[in-house]
């Protein structure tokens, strides 16, 4: 994620983080969905019929730890709330409002999961993946939700929903308004910078690492666009932008509607090719540039 995160407000940053948490849990095999905005928690996770409430906190970038001779970068969270009367911060009284705290680093899309009992007033996690101190790898989802007992890969429905959440998070952090569409819509996300710029977004996701491309046998992510016996595009005319999501690396490519291909292949980051994730941006797709 290479967006200017300082350009978005705290509410938008928080909403993007909630989408990232939903996507991460879905891709880990858990059943997760956003909570109603009136609740004191943000995400609900169904663990064997037991509903666990997740409070999400976000931060944009890692910052140097204070009072250190050498610069040590860490992510910081300060779970606090504002008084509705005085509009001043004060320590949050958690009580029984939620069961799990998910802290999100927006720039790296890393997430740590902690039980509510560990939701102290200041949480610090080192940016580096090695060395002393706390790291994101110390706080996986399974530590608080339990080992996922479901067998096999993530289902297509969950994969698609996770992809839609990742698209919302990506667009929100880019300063583009985005939300999930209603379940009965022919598209997955509604996005735009204003009422006159609303775009219907169709999301296609893949779960696997790149396979051999054709005809050069160069690895690429492949997305099926047309389907059915007659290879018809079931979505033709029902969306404005196509978002292709590689869920394993959390990268997204945006294209104008595709009507003349059965599938689209995208080269992994760092590889040259006709279509790469870095070139296929939201701005290019919505500006009408050729895909």
Word description of this protein:
It contains four helices and 18 strands. Helix content is 15%, strand content 30%. A hairpin with an 8-residue loop joins β11 (177-180) and β12 (189-192). The chain has a five-stranded mixed sheet. The radius of gyration is 20 Å and the shape is globular. The protein has two domains: 5-145, Trna Endonuclease, Chain: A, domain 1; 156-286, Trna Endonuclease, Chain: A, domain 1 (3-Layer(aba) Sandwich), CATH 3.40.1350. The chain is of the alpha+beta class and 291 residues long. α1 runs antiparallel to α3. The protein has helices spanning 10-27, 142-145, 156-173, 282-286, and strands at residues 31-34, 43-47, 50-59, 63-64, 73-77, 80-82, 89-91, 100-105, 110-115, 123-126, 177-180, 189-192, 199-206, 211-212, 219-224, 241-246, 251-255, 263-266.
Feature tags:
291 residues; alpha+beta; Trna Endonuclease, Chain: A, domain 1; five-stranded mixed β-sheet; 4 helices
| Shape descriptor | globular
Name the CATH architecture of the largest domain. Answer: 3-Layer(aba) Sandwich
The total of beta strands comes to 18
Question: What is the share of helical residues?
Answer: 10-25%
Low-confidence stretches: 82-88
Task: Tally the structural domains.
Answer: 2
Helices and strands, in order, run as HEEEEEEEEEEHHEEEEEEEEH
CATH hierarchy class name of the largest domain: Alpha Beta
- CA radius of gyration is 20 Å
CATH topology grouping of the largest domain: Trna Endonuclease, Chain: A, domain 1
Instruction: Give the overall average pLDDT.
Output: 84
Widest beta sheet: strand line-up: 1-2-3-8-9
The span between the termini is 21 Å
Largest sheet: 5 strands, mixed
SS summary, helix count = 4
Percent strand: 25-35%
What class, by secondary structure content? alpha+beta
């Amino acid at each position: 994620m290479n967006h200017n995160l300082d350009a978005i407000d705290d509410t938008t940053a928080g909403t993007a983080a909630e989408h990232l948490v939903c996507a991460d849990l879905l891709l880990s095999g858990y059943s997760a969905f956003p909570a109603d905005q009136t609740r004191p928690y943000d995400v609900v996770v169904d663990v064997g019929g037991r509903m666990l409430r997740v409070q999400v906190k976000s931060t944009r970038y890692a910052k140097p730890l204070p009072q250190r001779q050498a610069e040590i970068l860490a992510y910081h969270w300060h779970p606090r709330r504002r008084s509705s009367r005085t509009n001043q911060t004060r320590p949050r009284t958690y009580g029984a409002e939620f069961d799990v705290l998910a802290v999100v680093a927006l720039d790296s899309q890393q997430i740590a999961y902690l039980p509510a009992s560990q939701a102290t007033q200041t949480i610090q996690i080192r940016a580096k993946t090695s060395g002393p101190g706390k790291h994101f790898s110390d706080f996986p989802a399974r530590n608080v939700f339990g080992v996922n007992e479901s067998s096999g890969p993530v289902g297509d429905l969950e994969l698609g929903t996770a992809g839609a959440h990742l698209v919302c998070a990506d667009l929100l952090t880019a300063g583009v308004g985005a939300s999930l569409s209603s379940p009965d819509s022919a598209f997955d996300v509604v996005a735009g910078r204003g009422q006159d710029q609303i775009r219907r977004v169709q999301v296609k996701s893949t779960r696997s690492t790149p396979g051999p491309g054709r005809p050069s046998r160069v690895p690429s992510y492949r997305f099926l666009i047309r389907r059915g016996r007659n290879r018809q595009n079931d979505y033709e005319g029902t969306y404005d932008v196509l978002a292709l999501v590689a869920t394993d690396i959390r990268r997204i490519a945006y294209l104008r509607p595709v009507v003349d291909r059965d599938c689209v292949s995208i080269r992994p980051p760092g590889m040259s090719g006709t279509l790469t994730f870095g070139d296929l941006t939201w701005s290019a797709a919505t500006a009408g540039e050729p895909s």
